[in-house]
Amino acid sequence: MTxxxxxxxxxxxxxxxxxxxxxxxxxxxxxxxxTGSGWLAxxxxxxxxxxxxxxxxxxxxxxxxxxxAVRLRPPTEREAAEPVRFAQGLxxxxxxxxxxxxxxxxxxxxxVATALGLAAAFLNAAFGLCLxxxxxxxxxxxxSRA
Amino acid sequence: xRSAWTGLLVAVVVLLxxxxxxxxxxxxxxxxxxxxxxxxxxxxxxLGVRPDTPVTLLQFSSAICAPCRATARLxxxxxxxxxGVHHVDVDAAVHLDAVRALGIMRTPTLLVVDSDGRIVRRAxxxxxxxxxxTAAVNAAMAGGSAR
Lengths: 146, 147
Prior knowledge:
The complex is a heterodimer of chains A (146) and B (147). Chain A is mainly alpha-helical. Helix content of chain A is 68%, strand content 3%. Chain A has six helices and two strands. Chain A has helices at residues 16-35, 38-53, 59-68, 82-103, 107-127, 131-140, and strands spanning 12-13, 79-80. A two-stranded antiparallel sheet of chain A has the order 1-2. Chain A is globular, with a radius of gyration of 16 Å. Chain B has 147 residues and is of the alpha+beta class. Chain B is built from five helices and five strands. Chain B has helices at residues 2-28, 41-46, 67-81, 96-101, 130-143, and strands spanning 33-37, 55-61, 85-91, 109-114, 119-124. Chain B has a five-stranded mixed β-sheet with strand order 1-5-4-2-3, with helices on one face. Chain B starts with a helix and ends with a helix. The A-B interface holds A 1-3, 15, 29-30, 32-36, 79-80, 82-83, 85-86, 107, 111, 115, 118-119, 122-123, 126-127, 129-130, 132-134, 136-138, 140-141, 144, 146 and B 3-4, 6-8, 10-11, 14-15, 17-19, 21-23, 25-26, 62-69, 72-73, 76-77, 92-93, 96-97, 99-100, 104-108, 125.
């Protein structure tokens, strides 16, 4: 992207929003692990699902915009929505598996899937790690072997 | 009650392991490692590296990659500011053969290519610092045969 011919991105986000959402997600996932509650896992799976479809309507970003962003200065930089949606989709897959594990009486499956979701959410919250950057190529590399 | 302690233990282990991973990434990200890879000249030419260019910054990006934009902006600025530097930004998903051949694991990955088509530096993850990239470009320019 050159300074002269700036490409308009279809949708951009305040980068602090996803970090805020990932922090809440991390707390919720620790609670899921401690309580072993399949219903709490289901709730987080639904939250991830909404985020994967439409990040603007996801519950945690709505909280961020309504209660946090209004107290902060406008962001100096905005980031693309696509990486965030990808991470939400991946979270949805983890937590759906986790929910099924907990509710179907296979708590080990629930714990492992939730733990993977927690690792991803915490890395995003604490280090701003771009999950899509890490796994996208690893997922794509084997799929189209020439 | 036992499962609550197990769950808490799992949470603590996950948070510690993730912290170690995140810190390791923070140390390594954006560091322009010195490499010496002369075996991919034809592949690099196919990706858009011009044979007569003193230094090419070849960047692999993907659509779902937040730091790719910052890396692209830095490379474009350095290419504009420095004579003989060309920035090429390719979509990794479109060039999976090159991704495999060059062992690229994540985006953005930045390769510094000299005039002989050798990959002399390589960085992944967060963008390098401007000073670091400028120094790498200067070193590559001095090392290539088309001085």
